[in-house]
Each structure stands twice: as structure tokens, then as C-alpha cells.
Specification:
This protein is an alpha/beta fold and 239 residues long. It is built from ten helices and seven strands. It has a single domain, classed as Vaccinia Virus protein VP39 (Rossmann fold, 3-Layer(aba) Sandwich). The mean pLDDT is 89.
Length: 239
Amino acid sequence: MSIQAPTHIKTLLTRLHAASAAQESSLSQSLFYLKRNLLHFLFGTTWSAASDDHMRDKFVALEPEKCELVYLLARAAGATTIVEAGTSFGVSTVYLALAVGQNAKLRGEDGVKGKVIATEKEPSKAARAREHWKEAGREVEEVIELREGDLLETLAREDMPEVVDFLLLDIWTPMALPTLKLIQPRLRPGALVIADNTTMARGLYGEYLAYLRDPANGFKTTEAPYPGGLQVSVYLPEA
């Protein structure tokens, strides 16, 4: 792994990634994604209660190589405040927590401890995520603040950090742009914004990608050629 972490955390991540990969490679999951894309292109359908039921026990975690890139980008950016929209079982959150904790330690400033604000709407997933973070230990668990419920409400609270260094979007695609717009006023110049599966679900990400590519909105963006796609954007507003 391209991460700085104790052996027990690497072992935990290997186990969780294996479980996630087994789900993603199943026939039922492949058919679910195919049906979802077809319904969108044919009828404009985006999501349903049945979709929620199907995904309730699914990891939908970023693949290991994407998680390692996210970790390295967060380290390179010196990020100490990260927002993760769509935590699920908390796999990618471990990488983010390691990065911000290590960045804060490297800076060595009093009062700078690093924080990952994680979001999850499904209570059963939030509970599983907390179990995984507890297993990872204090280095991970103490860095994460999990906000349960509608992220457009939990991320709009007055106790949000004034400055956000990094935003990871791994959520229901129609929520990507509203979430970005909500967090954008807090993004520092040079902040990173990462969105997953932007190739596989390009049609569903249409408005989000158009927003990123509009020069008026202050982003420079590119597609990293990982399976499913990974949109990497940097916030560079003009002075």
C-alpha cells in the first residue's frame, strides 16, 4: 500500500476492500448498475426507494488504488480539514483520517489536529462505519466527525469549519452538484474536489461536470483513468 499506516490498519483495509470487491463483481450488482443507467437514459429516472433498499448493505467503497491516490493527494495538499460526502461503511474515510492526522502532526502547530467530516444518511451504514473506525484505533477514530442524516442539512450547520481543504464526493450522483455548491464558499484556493465513477455514470453527472468545466466557477478539472472514472478538480478562483 502507498500509505503510512500501522499493520493492523492495512490488514483491516485489505479485508474491507476484498468484501467490497466481492459485492461489486456480483451479477446482481452489475445488473443493478445497468438497469439504473438504462432507466435514466430512457425515462430520466434517477433513484427510487427500491434502489435505497438494494444499496443498504452494499459497501460501494472506492477501489484500493483510488483510495491510495486520494490519500496521496490529501498528503500532498497538506489537507487538515476534509469533507467526505457519502461515507457508507467508512473505508475511504480511514484513508482520509490517516492523511489529515499525519498532515496535522507534520505541521506541528498547537490546536491543529485535523478533521474529517463524514456524512451518511443510512443509520445501519453509519453504525458499521463506526465499528470499522474503532477497529482502526484512535489514530483514525479520533479524527472523524460523522454527521448522520441529509447531508444538505448536516453540512449546512453553523458549526462547519470556515475553511475546507478537500472534498470527496462518493454519493448518489444528483447530490454531487448541490453538495459542491454548498461547500464551495468554504473551499480554500487550491482545494481538491474528487468525484467517483464519473465515467461509468457520465450521463448522471452531466450537470456536475458542466459546472466544473465552466471557467466562471473557478475549477480546473481532469479525469483520472481509473475503472469507472475519477474526476480530480482543483479550486482556483481568480483573485
